[in-house]
Design a protein that fits this description.
Elements (H helix, E strand, L loop, with lengths): L11 H4 L3 H9 L2 E5 L4 E3 L7 E5 L3 E6 L7 E6 L19 E6 L1 E7 H9 L2 H27 L2 H16 L3 E3 L2 H8 L3 H13 L3 E4 L2 E4 L2 H7 L3 H13 L8
Antiparallel strand pairs: 1-7, 2-6, 3-7, 4-5, 4-6, 8-10, 9-10
């Protein structure tokens, strides 16, 4: 095991843990590279490792029989992959694929489970995180059926930028289409409008956000509702850092 005790933690969920919990987690983890397209979990297969992204992001997919997987949400530096272990479930509920390359803290799932058995407060924090995640996934499903392509595209671009911690990132129109559940041509039209109005710059798969304020205005309320869910549960006085 490669310990990383001096690593500056930038994962928001880790930052909500007590000092003892965060020190244990960092000392039992190793810093890994998340590579684009890397499959971290397969639906209903055992979870091998827990991931706390620091940069980059992981997409969660619902796999459909005879259909393409449907992308439902993102996990970045605000959360973790593997929180369902706190429910005693050892198999992954969804397909998890790296969409944004970056770095993450990785912990062996069985080591993590053993620690959870002796740490009720960590169990509680992870279950609160799961509650937020379930609400966010439900919101994403409703958004896909209720809002215009341009609104959904603006929302996802903001979500991606939040997790990449950069104004530029690589995503093709095809990947964006898969994210918001539409044809590539629909994304091309919406992205073209954003580019002409100065919200983004797009060239050969590289997107640069030029105006977050403009994208926020173009987005539906789901983006802000999702942020509010996380803030309400994890940025309140009841979090004990001692």
């Amino acid at each position: 095991m490669t310990a990383t005790p001096s690593l500056p933690v930038t994962n928001e969920l880790i930052n909500c843990l007590s000092n003892i919990q965060s020190k244990w987690l960092i000392s039992h983890s190793k810093l890994v590279e998340l590579k684009f397209g890397q499959i971290l979990n397969t639906t209903d297969r055992p979870i091998a490792n827990v991931y706390f992204p620091l940069t980059g992001f992981i997409s969660m997919f619902v796999e459909m029989t005879d259909e393409r997987p449907v992308e439902m949400g993102l996990i970045g530096s605000e959360g973790m992959l593997g929180a369902t272990l706190s429910l005693g479930k050892l198999n992954a509920p969804m397909l998890a694929v790296v969409r944004g390359p970056g770095k993450a803290l990785q912990i062996d799932a069985m080591v993590f489970c053993q620690y959870l058995k002796t740490n009720a407060s960590l169990q509680e924090i992870l279950q609160r995180y799961l509650y937020v995640l379930i609400q966010q996934l439900s919101l994403a499903g409703a958004c896909m059926h209720s809002h215009e392509v341009s609104q959904r595209l603006a929302r996802w671009l903001l979500m991606v930028q939040d997790r990449c911690h950069a104004s530029q990132f690589n995503l093709t129109h095809q990947h964006l289409a898969e994210m918001i559940g539409v044809r590539r041509s629909a994304v091309t039209i919406a992205a073209g409008v954003f580019q002409r109005t100065g919200l983004i710059r797009y060239s050969r798969g590289q997107i640069e956000v030029l105006s977050r304020a403009g994208l926020a205005h173009a987005s539906c309320q789901c983006y802000f509702a999702s942020l509010s869910l996380q803030k309400k549960e994890f940025h309140t006085p009841h979090i004990n850092k001692t």
